[in-house]
Design goal:
This protein is of the alpha+beta class. It has two domains: about 30 residues; about 80 residues, no CATH class. A two-stranded antiparallel ribbon has the order 1-2. A hairpin with a 2-residue loop joins strand 1 and strand 2. The longest helix has 18 residues.
Length: about 140
């Protein structure tokens, strides 16, 4: 089967057409398409840990987390430990892999950031100014 209809043998084009039709119907039925994937990847890329922390650095209750956080973490482990009369709760969160997410964003068909045709032949100059906030004026 070819990557497009014209790459298929003429005798197999009806199979290619049927597959494409089934994919389109599935996408419509599930409401998952390239735009949905790109939007979710973007949402994960924009996650900010401050959204799930209180001002004192403690973790907000999960019910108070934004939906994007609740649906994007890879795992949550809560352990209660006792030491004498003291009870401590340890919460471990497995964060989304931001590097992998960015790679997937770049590979997305509409972004195509890793395609050599999309990169410029000339290197781009980046100027960075380092500022010491503790330096005296």
């Amino acid at each position: 089967m070819g990557k497009n209809r014209d790459a298929c043998k003429p005798s197999m084009r009806h199979v290619w057409d049927a597959i494409q039709k089934a994919k389109a119907e599935r996408s419509k039925r599930t409401q998952v398409d390239a735009d949905y994937v790109l939007n979710r990847l973007h949402e994960i890329d924009q996650l900010d840990v401050l959204d799930i922390l209180n001002d004192d650095g403690s973790m907000k209750p999960i019910k108070d987390w934004p939906k994007s956080w609740r649906t994007s973490i890879n795992g949550l482990d809560v352990q209660t430990m006792m030491s004498g009369d003291t009870e401590a709760v340890m919460k471990k969160i497995k964060w989304p892999d931001k590097a992998k997410n960015l790679d997937l964003l770049g590979r997305h068909v509409s972004v195509n950031a890793w395609n050599p045709e999309n990169s410029s032949a000339e290197p781009t100059a980046i100027n960075i100014e380092v500022v010491n906030p503790h330096a005296e004026s």
